[in-house]
C-alpha cells in the first residue's frame, strides 16, 4: 500500500517531514505519542475478535488490566470514536493523530471502521515510517514551487 500518495498537499508533506526527522523526544511532546500503542493495538484487536457491538468492545478495553488511565482512554476511543477509512480513500476521515502515533510506534495493524472490500489485499510494508516519508517530503517543495509557476 502506498503510504504517501503522489499529491501536493502541504499537510502530507508536514507529516512526512515529521516522521522522517523527529526523534523520540519530539514525539513524546504530543499527548497521543505518549501511549503504549503496541499494547493498545493488540488489546483492541483481541476485543474486536471477541465480538459484540462497539459498547461491548469498548467495555473490554476499559476494563483491561494492561492499561493505565492514559492508555485506557485511547483504547476505548478506538471503539467509541473509531478511526475511519474506506478502501480507495487517500486519507482517514477520523483518527489522523492516533494513526500517526501508531505508525511512529511501529504498529502495523489496528481496528479501523470503514468499508473494506473483501477482495482488496493491502501489503504490509517493511519500510520504517521515516523511510516511507522521506521521498514524499523531499519531493513536495519542488512540486509546490512548480505549481506556482516558478523554477524550483
Write up what this structure looks like:
By secondary structure, the chain is mainly α. It has one domain. The protein has 7 helices and no strands. The protein has helices at 10-21, 24-28, 37-49, 54-62, 69-80, 96-104, 129-147. α3 (37-49) packs across α4 (54-62) and α4 (54-62) runs antiparallel to α5 (69-80). The longest helix is centred in the last third of the chain and has 19 residues, at 129-147. The two termini are 29 Å apart.
How do the SSEs run, as a string of H and E? HHHHHHH
Question: Number of helix segments?
Answer: 7
Distance from N terminus to C terminus (CA atoms, Å) equals: 29 Å
Number of domains: 1
| Shape type | globular
Given helix and strand content, the structural type is: mainly alpha
Helix coverage percent: 40-55%
**Mean pLDDT over all positions:** 78
Uncertain ranges: 1-6
Percentage of residues in strands: under 5%
Q: Quick one: how many beta strands?
A: 0
C-alpha Rg, in Å? 17 Å
| Biggest beta sheet summary | none
Protein name: ParB/Sulfiredoxin domain-containing protein
Secondary structure elements and their pairing?
Elements: H1 10-21, H2 24-28, H3 37-49, H4 54-62, H5 69-80, H6 96-104, H7 129-147
Helix pairs in contact: 1-7, 3-4, 3-5, 4-5
Organism: Embleya scabrispora
Protein name: ParB/Sulfiredoxin domain-containing protein
